[in-house]
Amino acid sequence: xxxxxxxxxxxxxxxxxxxxxxxxxxxxxxxxxxxxxxxxxxxxxxxxxxxxxxxxxxxxxxxxxxxxxxxxxxxxxxxxxxxxxxxxxxxxxxxxxxxxxxxxxxxxxxxxxxxxxxxxxxxxxxxxxxxxxxxxxxxxxxxxxxxxxxxxxxxxxxxxxxxxxxxxxxxxxxxxxxxxxxxxxxxxxxxxxxxxxxxxxxxxxxxxxxxxxxxxxxxxxxxxxxxxxxxxxxxxxxxxxxxxxxxxxxxxxxxxxxxxxxxxxxxxxxxxxxxxxxxxxxxxxxxxxxxxxxxxxxxx
Length: 300
Fold this sequence. Notes:
The protein is an alpha+beta fold and 300 residues long. It has helices at residues 3-46, 139-142, 183-186, 195-198, 282-290, 296-299; strands at 47-51, 61-62, 69-71, 81-82, 89-92, 101-104, 111-115, 127-136, 148-157, 160-167, 175-180, 202-205, 216-225, 230-236, 239-247, 259-264, 268-276. The chain has one domain (48-299): Sandwich (Jelly Rolls), CATH 2.60.120. The strands form two sheets. Strands 1, 2, 5, 6, 8, 13, 14, 15 and 17 form a nine-stranded antiparallel beta sheet that branches. Strand 9 (148-157) and strand 10 (160-167) form a beta hairpin. Helix 1 crosses helix 5 (282-290).
């Protein structure tokens, strides 16, 4: 056998292996592409509400009422006005995570909200969902004294069948998830000093990663509420930061009185509010956090 023949016999297997590796890489890339598309498709299918604030304050997409409302007092919802009517809140071009964002400049009376009905997949049995949004602020320097709720969803109050996140009142401020059932269940005696019953229901995060000029993603995940195996989780920038397991208290809403309130005593920026009718998976949460152009990406 000549040297030429030897080289040919050696080169042939190498060529086959190289071709095989290329084929494997192509298959893996295709699988990754299919996985990514499936994740975004799942997010789109589960979406019930989305407000980008790019073209106005009303929702870009909604299953329920898309309009924003302003009211002076939550006990007087019948006097609500359509639109944004608080001078300390405005849409600012180029100030959002993507495009326009909402800016809150001072702590003031009055509320802005979107109705919950349809926009949140509330159920008296086995309620699941997720709430996503972005915030930009330095809590230590931007917020005025007192508690602050960037979002609060309820038909009555923060301590009665409510979902919210807040910043605590004193520096250094913790960031907390509250998923609080019917007050008459967890505080059956109607105690005014209820901290011993209330505080254990919260999931606090110390030293949360908020900073001036930077955007932080918040995701509230809800599963099995109004069952014996309710659970709520708080994700920040795609990472799990807090959990409320074993939520057995009921959540009873008068749905037409329940609203998605934004910016209660909040000072800073907010953008990209989206709501889903299921608890999101880890892959879906990371995909949502990483969307290049925000939720609009999955609607295109």
